Amino acid sequence: MSILSTCQAPPPEGWVSVGEYEARFVAQPANTSPVARTRAQGLSRTVYPDITVECEESGGHVIQESLFLPPTQEYPWKKAWNTMWDDGLLPALEGLEEDTNESDHEGTATRLALGVLQYIRKAQSLYEYIWRDRKMTVMAVAGKYSHINQWEQSIVRAMALHPKLPYIAIARQDDRIEVRSLNEADHRVLLRDKKQVGVICMQWAPHCDQLLAVGSTTSVLLWHLDPTAPCSRFLTTWVRVECSPGHAPISSLSWSPQGNFLVSASPSDSNLVVWDIPMGVATKVQRSKGGGVTDVCWSPDGGRVFAGCRTSLFRVWETLKWSCEKWTNSTGRCKAACWSPEGDLLLFALEGDPSLYYICFRGNDLAAGSTSAIKCADLTPCTLLGESGMEYLVGGCVQDMCWDCTGERLAIIFTSDGPCGDLVVVLRTRTSHLLDILPGGFIRGQEGEVPLTVSFKPGYIEGALLVIVWSSGRISFTPLCFQSPLSMATPIFPPEQLTPLTSIQRTPRLTRPALGVSVRANHTPLYHTPLYSAELNSH
């Protein structure tokens, strides 16, 4: 039975969700301002206004035509020779083939060149069959493995909340990063560099207020800035971290809880790269099977690192000796994953599977954890009946999810092609012994908006503050207010309707083989670049 069948029905279209108050999700008409909506319900004493990121139109690519007339006739071989010098061998042969088809005249050299073209095409087709992702462009690969829904078309391509200060970093479609203050709307700066192309992921360092890691389609960049300084004296320096060959695009980044190590992943590289930021040393953690690594996530206790691959395989590394265990036999690749606040539970979702699974780890020894993944929630599409009698089809496959630092709220967005791609579902969780997932409610944006990614602002004392990036470029802050533990909260449904949620059973879907030899990482210094000034625009 789907857990969503016992959730509170989503608000009707034309209404915008305000937040959670006394275990109920409330909404108001969309024509009310966000601050007024929140204060009218008495949800939270701390209210952040919505942020809107405008889509700046580029000036376009102007093609200047030559003032001189082209030659009236150009022989095919001469044209192919000029094309080869400008664009390469393959475009030259393809142009020669077109000219030959138009003239219906072939010589011995032309037939030989066309034969070479056919062999090149066969080799390309074989290469593309073996490496299916390699035939995609870099931007297409980045969009496929990014946590942002519809990454290539979205106005906001990445978002990172500062763990301590009221600042947010927003990566825009024009490859600029905007750092904004949540308290002062006019306090913002723009960070840009020629190597910062196609930003996919960002994350602030945990215990360093000045360090922002950025993963792009070309490299990893570290921005070193002082967000506490006034806007007129915003100090910034930066260092570009040169990745090892083939380690791009960077699809995921994750800091260690201490903030001295940064791990990066790339779909085109089967190795993890662990960066020792203070020492300026890169460490390759090597594994050959499973294809490229698409997602990494360091556990809050620092003892483990999750690494999801392009295939149906994923690994969990322990950081003491850097040995790993391999999890196989899944129905698809791992689409999204997150750790519990204690770092002993790994929650994940698979591509094409409307379910949630978790793995329990105890202690630093990997063998002390579970031997199989446990299915803890069914997200199969189901129909909910609203207060006005309208039916809503909810559920589907997971696109992204996030667990708040209290371990009591879990936010999930679904794939855009699903029945409720325009909603965010919030579930209640308990992590005392095993994982319990209880019904929650739905968050709806403005008309026509689709959620792109979700995150929780750390350190929110009134419960949990859910930050949602919408397809219109709007970033909303939705307070989820709860004072007492989840077990004492007022249920939104009678207890007899919660019985299907207790059927958490071990399933043999994912099994773990015996642990192999510990993998020792080979330390290879890749850069010793000092910090230097970069371009900065203040607004």
Question: How many strands appear in the DSSP assignment?
Answer: 35
Q: What CATH architecture of the largest domain do you see?
A: 7 Propeller
Q: Which stretches are low in confidence, meaning pLDDT under 50 for 5 or more residues running?
A: 57-72, 486-539
Q: How many angstroms separate the termini? A: 52 Å
Q: How many discrete structural domains?
A: 2
Net shape: globular
Q: Percent of residues in beta strands?
A: 35-45%
Largest β-sheet summary: 5 strands, antiparallel
The oligomerization state is single chain
**Radius of gyration computed on alpha carbons:** 26 Å
Number of helices, where a helix is a run of at least 4 consecutive DSSP H or I residues: 5
- Which bin fits the share of residues in helices? 10-25%
Mean pLDDT: 78
- Structural class designation: mainly beta
Task: Give the CATH class of the largest domain.
Answer: Mainly Beta
CATH topology of the largest domain: Methylamine Dehydrogenase, Chain H
CATH-defined superfamily of the largest domain: YVTN repeat-like/Quinoprotein amine dehydrogenase
Plain-language structure description:
This protein has 539 residues and is mainly beta. The protein has 2 domains: 3-54 and 155-511, YVTN repeat-like/Quinoprotein amine dehydrogenase (Methylamine Dehydrogenase, Chain H, 7 Propeller); 76-103 and 111-135, no CATH class. 12% of the residues lie in helices and 37% in strands. The protein has helices at residues 34-41, 76-87, 89-103, 108-130, 138-145; strands at residues 15-21, 24-29, 51-52, 156-161, 167-172, 177-181, 188-191, 201-204, 211-215, 220-225, 236-241, 252-255, 261-266, 269-276, 281-285, 293-298, 304-309, 314-318, 323-327, 334-339, 345-350, 355-360, 372-378, 382-385, 391-394, 398-403, 409-414, 423-430, 436-444, 451-457, 463-470, 474-481, 505-511, 522-524, 536-538. The strands form 9 sheets. It has a 5-stranded antiparallel β-sheet with strand order 4-5-6-7-35, with no helix packed on it. Strand 5 (167-172) and strand 6 (177-181) form a beta hairpin. Helix 2 packs antiparallel against helix 3 (89-103) and helix 3 (89-103) crosses helix 4. The chain is globular. The two termini are 52 Å apart. 40% of the residues are buried. Mean pLDDT is 78; it is low at 57-72 and 486-539.
